[in-house]
Design brief:
Elements (H helix, E strand, L loop, with lengths): L1 H38 L8 H4 L1 H5 L1 H11 L13 H32 L7 H25 L5 H37 L12 H25 L22
Helix pairs in contact: 1-4, 1-8, 4-5, 4-7, 5-6, 6-7, 7-8
Keywords: Electron transport, Endosome, Glycoprotein, Heme, Iron, Lysosome, Membrane, Metal-binding, Oxidoreductase, Translocase, Transmembrane, Transmembrane helix, Transport
InterPro entries: CYB561/CYBRD1-like, Cyt_b561/ferric_Rdtase_TM
Main location: membrane
Length: 247
């Protein structure tokens, strides 16, 4: 029976991970398609086509960051030293942060070219808060969990806080994305021929993409919260744990 439970738990984990990967890829493809079909594609020339890089690339760090968070859920990560997985966790988050910053650079340069005020909307406030917390989370995680001279007791004290803020940053990231989708629709469909309130095809497409982003975020939280998929501490099995590092 324990062996069967182990196989079932591993099977459900990989099924959830594959579903998550499919959702993430769909969000990227649909967002790029939205910018290409309804907004003329991409260009780095100060025009509105330059701004399209912002929503067009935003789902990519949104995929990398959850992938970094789920590194410790991989069954093979439970065996052997934890350091390589810590490094992978940090590197994936760093790549996600770099892509996020590039997305911000696009917006600020576009606003500067158009002489538009920065940080005037709720979407921009959410985005800046998310990026700031992301930067603090990565830096503190690097200092506390990767540098060898930090005492074990301090790591144990800060680990729940690190995990908590990871979930908060994920939730804020999802909120930033869906508020950005809504803001983009308000700007692009604010005219007399095709108002947003008439629910044109672009609105249906973008709203559906936003719903996929929400489902993606909820699935990430679900995978992170399932106790049987968490890497156990040495000699400890949490409630609901069905396999351990020695299995």
């Amino acid at each position: 029976l324990p062996g069967r439970l182990i196989r079932m738990a591993i099977g459900w984990f990989y099924l959830s991970s594959y579903a998550l990967s499919l959702l993430g890829v769909m969000c990227i493809i649909l967002t790029v398609y939205w910018m290409q079909l309804w907004h003329g594609g991409f260009a780095w020339d100060g025009s509105i086509l330059m701004f399209n890089y912002h929503p067009g690339q935003r789902p990519r760090p949104g995929m990398l960051s959850p992938a970094a968070s789920l590194v410790y859920r991989l069954p093979r990560s439970w065996l052997g030293p934890k350091l390589p997985w810590k490094i992978g966790h940090a590197v994936l988050h760093l790549l996600a942060f770099v892509l996020t910053v590039l997305g911000l650079v696009v917006v600020f340069q576009f606003h500067s070219h158009r002489r538009t005020t920065n940080l005037y909307s709720l979407h921009s406030w959410l985005g800046i808060v998310t990026v700031f917390l992301f930067a603090c989370q990565w830096f503190l995680g690097f200092v506390v969990f990767l540098l060898p001279w930090v005492p074990v007791w301090l790591r144990g004290l800060l680990k729940p806080i690190h995990v908590f803020f990871g979930a908060i940053i994920l939730s804020l990231s999802v909120a930033s994305v869906i508020s950005g989708i809504n803001e983009k629709l308000f700007f692009s469909l604010n005219n007399d021929t095709q108002p947003y309130s008439s629910l044109p095809s672009e609105a249906i497409f973008a709203n559906s993409t936003g719903m996929l982003v929400v489902v993606f975020g909820l699935l990430v939280l679900y995978i992170l919260l399932v106790s049987s998929w968490k890497r156990p501490e040495p000699g400890i099995l949490s409630e609901g744990q069905v396999w351990g590092p020695g299995l």
